[in-house]
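Deliverable D5.2: sample structural annotation.
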Amino acid sequence: MKEILKAYFSNNFQASTIEIEQLVSVFTEKIAQKNEILISKGEPCWYTYFVCKGSVRAYFIDDNGQEATRYIAFENQFITTVHSFISQTPTNEFLEGTEQSVLIQISYGDFKKITEETALGRVLYQKQLEAAYIINHWRLESFLKMPAKQRYDFLLQTNPAIVQRLSNKIVASYLGITQESFSRIKAKK
């Protein structure tokens, strides 16, 4: 699986083979079953995950037990609870395998070391922070400006895998609507 991560770095970053090998060497493989909780609310986030196969989601559960999915990572994407990973404090999110998944993980200690020792590590960190900001900004803006139907249509255009591969419950929680509302929107398509 490390070959997938090497290819990701080769295709997306300007780095030497030696630097890529050095970075990839600190990652370890992790298999996540469907519905397996990788990180629970109240725990510090010790790892950042790269999805080689499958998918993982980050979500919250409110006081009424309702789930709100913040982010879904598919193949060739990273996922973590950024604030908890950076600060090493307890998270208020969950990370869960939404499909049986093959992941490559890096611990906080190894991540800090690699960002201090390699230019590739620093660029990776910068790119991941930028990506998290852009995604979170878009999600906030879409919730403030778009009705649910428009969010769904946009999701179909930009990331149809979410709708095609995941349950209606997860898609509805990602869109910020109830399953019933989501079913009505889907029925009108």
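Annotation notes: The mean pLDDT is 93. The two ends are 38 Å apart (CA to CA).
The annotation will be released with the project's public dataset once the embargo ends.
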